[in-house]
Amino acid sequence: MRLVLLGAPGAGKGTQASRIAKRFGIQQLSTGDMLREAAAAGTPLGLRTKHIIDRGELVPDEVVIAVVANRIDQADAANGFVLDGFPRTLLQAEALDRELAARRMGLDAVLELEVNEDVLLVRIKGRAQEAADQSQSVRRDDNPEVFKTRLKAYRAQTVPLTEYYRSQGLLKIVDGLQPIDIVTEELTTALRTSCYG
Ligand code: AMP
Fold first, then answer.
1. Which of 58, 68, 99, 152 to mutate to test the pocket of ligand 1 (most atoms within 8 A of CB)?
2. Which of 9, 50, 72, 73 is deepest in the core (most CB within 10 A)?
3. In whole angstroms, how far apart are CA 88 and each of 110, 130, 178, 181?
């Protein structure tokens, strides 16, 4: 099963992608995690992209497309994957279609977590506080100023993907404001009906 999970920053993509991945025995592929790991390891990719992430802007399309194209060929993704945080632009979505088609693959579904924007800032502050309380490192981009830039990028560049995937008949929208377990159940039901139904 090959899936894309869409949603604004703070909508709960990471949490839900991880649960869906476990439930369906597929790999969670988070471009944000990959880029943060690269930054922590000080690789050329990490050094090139760290300051962009810290500002809340989007990493150039060609960089992130190359990362994903390489990642989906790895053995642990052979059984399928849920992409979390990719694609984020129309160019990335088109590149993903091409990369999958070249491998004689396609997407089975695109899930979108719908969340009212007013709630997002509260969630981001909560996420930063939770990490601090547990003495975990707080993401440098989880602060109100940078969050505004991330939301702007989402509105301008990622929102058009909803129509792109709707027109392909792949889109399933779930209310992301519900309790975490209910969101997971609704995503699972949407997948069972679209992929096995
Ligand atoms: P995330 O963890 O998905 O919120 O991503 C954190 C940051 O990584 C984003 O704000 C971007 O700077 C960068 N990033 C992650 N995925 C992408 C992508 N598909 N395209 C461009 N930038 C990305």
1. 58
2. 9
3. 13, 26, 24, 26
